[in-house]
């Protein structure tokens, strides 16, 4: 029995979140369904640039994962998905993938467009993701690194990096931006 490190365990959770049709593979269609859920919840029309940016960020990441997988594959099993994420090089070759995702998520979550995510905007996001509101203040505090009571794009980016790269402990609050509870 292989003992999984925290990164691998988090990536397995992410796989389960994405594989919404439960067929044991993650595909681009799984990502599209998630982007459509954002569009519906945040009332983003098909021409909204925030929606396009979110889809583009996920598409770029997906291509990055496929580039690290067996050529010709268009769906990834759990093991392939975990291995591809770890091979992408978020801390070396491709930091842009997480930066762009953070930027796109930030623009959608910042519903009033004041360039910062308030605790109310964060709570609305948690409701959308089906996370109980009880933990919201604690999660918010952990994400608000500079303690100014708002979440910045940079704080989201840092949390996503920690989710993918920190192997110190299982819990990484950035998972919340990827749909982990
Ligand atoms: Ca805001
Ligand atoms: Ca902050």
TrEMBL record:
Entry keyword set: Metal-binding, Repeat
Pfam families attached to this UniProt entry: EF-hand_5
Top-level taxon in the UniProt lineage: Bacteria
EF-hand domain boundaries: 6-41, 97-132
PROSITE patterns associated with the record: EF_HAND_1, EF_HAND_2
Protein name according to UniProt: EF-hand domain-containing protein
């Amino acid at each position: 029995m292989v003992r999984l490190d925290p990164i691998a365990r988090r990536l397995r959770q992410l796989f389960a979140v994405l594989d919404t049709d439960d067929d044991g593979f993650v595909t681009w269609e799984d990502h599209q369904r998630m982007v459509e859920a954002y569009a519906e919840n945040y009332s983003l029309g098909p021409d909204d640039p925030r929606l396009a940016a979110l889809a583009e960020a996920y598409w770029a990441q997906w291509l990055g994962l496929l580039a690290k997988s067996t050529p010709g594959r268009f769906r990834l099993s759990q093991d392939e998905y975990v291995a591809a994420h770890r091979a992408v090089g978020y801390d070396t070759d491709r930091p842009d993938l997480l930066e762009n995702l953070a930027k796109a998520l930030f623009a959608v979550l910042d519903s009033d467009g004041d360039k910062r995510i308030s605790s109310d905007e964060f709570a609305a996001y948690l409701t959308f993701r089906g996370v109980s509101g009880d933990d919201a203040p604690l999660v918010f505090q952990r994400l608000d690194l500079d303690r100014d009571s708002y979440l910045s794009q940079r704080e989201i980016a840092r949390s996503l990096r920690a989710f993918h790269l920190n192997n110190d402990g299982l819990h990484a609050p950035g998972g919340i931006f990827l749909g982990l509870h």
